[in-house]
Design a protein that fits this description.
There is one protein chain. The protein has about 325 residues and is α/β, with parallel strands linked by helices. It is built from 12 helices and 8 strands. It has a single domain, classed as Rossmann fold (3-Layer(aba) Sandwich). Helices cover about 40% and strands about 15% of the residues. Strand 5, helix 4 and strand 6 form a beta-alpha-beta unit. Helix 3 crosses helix 4. About 45% of the residues are buried.
Length: about 325
Amino acid sequence: MIPASLLGLTGAGDRAARLEPLDPAQLSTPLPTRRVEVNGLGLNTLDSGEEGRPAVVLIHGMGSNLGFWHKQVPWLRALGLRVLALDLPGYGGSDKPDAPCSPKWYAEQLVGWLDALEVPRAAVIGHSMGGQTAMELALLAPERLAALVLAAPAGIEVFSEAGAAFMRGYWHERRALEASPVEIEANFKKLAFNVHDEHVERLLIERLRAQRHPSFVHTSRTVSRNIAGMLDHPVAPRLAELSTPTLIVWGEDDRMIPNPMFTGGSTAELASRGRRLFPAARAVLIPGAGHFVHHDAPEQFHDAAGDFLTRHLRRR
């Protein structure tokens, strides 16, 4: 194993080890949350409460939770929008069912969640797997979506059969549970985030502490099923069917999508592929930003998405 010092890591595992294990239900959130019952599941829900205003839904990616939207919740509220976010089933404070947990299945639960919140129509921002989930939602219930903003979305990249088979095997149901602290810190600081600040450090420490909690075994299972679901239900062949106004925002220095091991190439090349598959979508690339483009370059992300969202929400 490469020494942590040579990876530029800071020993977050040692700091987390001095703290108590953290129940994933206690992960930090930008605003207080409440439980919303949907199809027999309790979903941890953030609702900024501005009823009557146009709504924006935030859908997080694999392995994360609604706390990863810490920079977007205040920005959207400042735009005068009602902000809704949830921990997807299997994550955070939501129930962790023995269920498919695929983007397609998540989209079905999201329709019920919007019904429970009495939100007939909303814009949606989805990150990574949350982007693929948002596209599934747009295909399932296009009348419920005013606009889509996809931040570094999964689903446009297509894997070979061999690559997909390897990933299914690698991401077995205990894989996330067995990851070492050094590996987790490297994933955060060398792959996921290009800008490291106090927010990333907090999220990393929480992730390390949550892994030591007994309930994290269910989250690890969820991650495995997320991977299988994304691979088994590709959305790329159906992108031409999408009619929802869509903006795709990529970080030019994304080290996770496209997958460097199995598909290679650059984010710009993937964006070009997306334009061919999804001609109705508009794409923006932000220099220097990585996979968490909305964290790494929030001002540029907000500039790109703000006018787009408010323009299409005004048309509801």
